[in-house]
Amino acid sequence: MTTTAPGAGGQAAPxxxxxxxxxxxxxxxxxxxxxxxxxxxxxxxxxxxRRPAVRVSLCVVLLFVLMAATAxxxxxxxxxSPEEFDKSAIDPYLGGQPLGSLGGxxxxxxxxxxxxxxxxxxxxxxxxxxxxxxxAFAATAIVVVTGTAAGIAAGYFxxxxxxxxxxxxxxxxxxxxxxxVIAMLSVAKDVNRIVLMTAVIGLFGWPGVARVVRGQTxxxxxxxxxxxxxxxxxxxxxxxxxDILPGVSGPVIAYTTLLIxxxxxTEAALSYLGVGVRPPTPSWGQMIAESxxxxxxxxxxxxxxxxxxxxxxxAFTLLGDALRDILDPRGGRS
Length: 334
Hints:
The chain is mainly alpha-helical. The protein has helices at 24-37, 40-50, 52-69, 71-78, 121-157, 159-174, 177-187, 193-203, 206-220, 224-231, 236-272, 284-291, 299-327, and strands at 90-91, 97-98. Helix 5 (121-157) packs parallel to helix 8.
């Protein structure tokens, strides 16, 4: 005869595995339950700790952010301001070439000096990081806030709202934004160039985020918990902020970290073309543009700002790529 253990419905309980180990089904369900109980941010932290390249890129990103935030103090630590000339560090008989090897690197000038002017490269690179990251972060914030608001509104309300916002996205994306940015920055004279660059770059960047958020919102608006909140009498604002927005935050954060390196490159390109930040305000793109005339006689003047720009863009790109794979796996590469 077969005996059954007391339980619901009188069903037999599964026999334990030999050696007192738990049943195979329970053992297999344990990791899944642990993974299910983990929040996206716990999964992100776990994955980031597993990838050495991402840890290095995160450290580089934090280093650049710290450098930009403390630029005035770092410049003072080097002993020079970014606009201060040091005529004793250049040779007037050789066309203003820096004295010494490697572009004038010395205990007084840690990264050398600019040809002709003798301005300290360390101070200009540090303050250039502040300008470049300020424009990149501010423009990215405008793009993300505007794109998220437009995408959620288009996806949730639908109908005429969706049609109007979608046509506006198409119009903005089809506009020759680079030509418009160059034209605007060329004719603007007595304005704050940093504010103007931030506003113009942000004006043309939001449709990409809006399209991503709109697609996510369309997949979330008919979920059970959203329908339950709607039936329960919750307002549209409460549903958008409490139910929809947390659901799209993962892809938005991943997209944001991928936007920042593009914004840094855009600012550097506009400054390189001469329509961005104007002297004496330092900028990496501006320094690279000025160094072209000296790349044969003083290659370090070109190498130093180019290296900082390359490391910043690479670090943000690697970090953003990893966050996209973790927080938005369906939008990542297979």
